[in-house]
# Entry
Amino acid sequence: MFTWRQAAEALGKILLPVSGPTDAIVRIEESAAARQCITIAMTQAPAPRPWNNEEERLRVLQRMRSQLKGDGVLAQGILSPTIEASWRRSLSYGLEPDEVLQTDCKPAADRNAELLRQCAEPELEFLARQYAEHGALVLADAHAQVLRTCGSLGCGDQACIEQVREGFIWSESLRGTNALGTSLVHQQPIWINSGEHFLDGLAHLSCAAVPIRDARGRLAGILDLTREGPLRNPRDSINMLMLSASQIEGRLLCATHGEHLVLAVHSRRPYLESAWRGLLAVDGQGRIQAANEQACSLLGRTQQQLSKLECEALLDLPFETLLSRLGQADVLEQAHGHTQLYLRCVQWPLALRPHQGPGARSRSRPSAARAPAGRPSPAAELEPRLQTAVKALNAGVPILLQGETGCGKEVAARALHARCLRARMPFVAINCAAIPEGLMEAELFGYREGAFTGARRGGAPGRLLQAQGGVLFLDEIGDMPQALQARLLRVLQERKIMPLGSTMEVDLDVLLICASHRNLQELTALQQFRQDLFYRINGLSLRLPALRERTDFVALAHALAQRIAGCPVPISEALLRLLQSHDWPGNIRELEMVLRTALALREQADDTLGPEHLSEGFMAQLGSTGSAAEAGPAPAANRLQALQAQALTQALKEHNGNATAAARSLGMSRATLYRKLRQYGC
# Structure
């Protein structure tokens, strides 16, 4: 195990480019997120030897695996210390690398499993839009039992891969080294690259996992990303998962303390609706019942110290006065020691509402379930056609949305639902490309108890019936198997549905919106899509513009950044110009991930989102995709990097090498300054 100073030095080389261990320790003290990063450096040091390329790494790992199976000897110094220790534990469990496990699938026994699943669903849907086409997202409980999966893993040892689904247990003692089970052992974020899994059947996969903790700091579950091939940027994946885990933990705290007042707290007002905010659950007598890790860091106390502490003792303010002031203002500023804290109510239970100030009774209180601000809207140039589409939808005419992947087809579908006569009824979205073919029929049409092996007790209604009376959105319908197309056609014609294992039909009343990035007319001509189904769903066709064609790029970027951060985020002109120069083959989905990564890399001291917050991978992509016209002296991204490097060195020179003053003059934190200096080799 590293000392804190050794870990800080490792962190300076791996995650936070700093001038030395002292600066790293300063950053550790500033936020809970930094401490989470240091634990990664402490629990997963880099492998002792560097690899010249990916082929060499996999070749050496394969020789190590063969030696273990042949001689029973595990070579030392090839795997990182954490992974090597996990392999040795796998051997101690009596596992063999080439064995195939046949484990029964059981329903989750933990009574909190359904609550965790519900709190994680929004984050799983977001992550699935980015990763589900090339991997699987897995949510597991504190016992490593899978609760929810999205996506698929493709080829490989199917006996192992088929067990990456609901009900199966992925503990290290049963499956050997895997990110989900190994993260459970260490209770820390971890990634395992291809070739590093203990079982041969999983060796072609890579995975990253982070723990999810409940309001008392106890392990509640694991969030895992598994995909084929190596993880090119494992720390980016870890950052995304940690950000999502933080959002899930916030929902868990609100859900488990529904009868309590929940306050968001931060030393900076813009962060009150971000993933970095502290959360406090307070009962009717003003006693703190729970706090998340960010709150503990901001208030300088452990969860045990905060538990049962009076709000008045913490904030030097009577609880009745606190309630009254919260009822009169959206944000409350309150002194705490030598600093100022900002507080906002995110959950106001009915039992405490009589204590509000008289001027606040008519105010609508924030709640944990409210929609995030800054939700992006369809392109402004589509407005006339959207109005026409709403009229058609109200008349029962099916709508077909077409456009490139990631251009916002689901956003347009939700906008149509919000404007139509059934806006108060359900909106059910189904990605036809993300559901495994063997499960699609049960997923769409539902099933009765005992319809097949592993069927849930009591059966399931199916997604079509979940949309009863509302709007059904079939995304990527062009990827639906033809056998299922025939059954869907019959359902749409007769408006009746028969679940698997049932002999009775159920009337179906839904408005239909379909979407596809593929040209359905061409697929019909190639006999890859049923012609009669195409005519059934193509009532009114609406083509959505690609991101590069949209005239509202700046407004969209600001809306996306606000939605991700939970509060308005200033974006510099330099960053907007750089983003507008990109071709965006992934459209809005790609822009959303770029902004999400930039916000994750932004330091709390950085007020404005700028080019210095972009990941190195995206900057390299910008440089490699420069047009021939730009390729004169250098691509646009390379020229920008050169200008940034010049600005950094000039600022340091003007401030006589004082990094803090130079960073302040550039409007960035010292950690960001060091990271950019290292990136540009200054």
Observations:
- The chain has four domains: 100-253, 259-360, 380-544, 549-680.
- Confidence is low (pLDDT under 50) at residues 1-48, 354-374, 626-637.
- The chain is about 45% helix and 15% strand.
- The first strand starts at residue 135 and ends at 141.
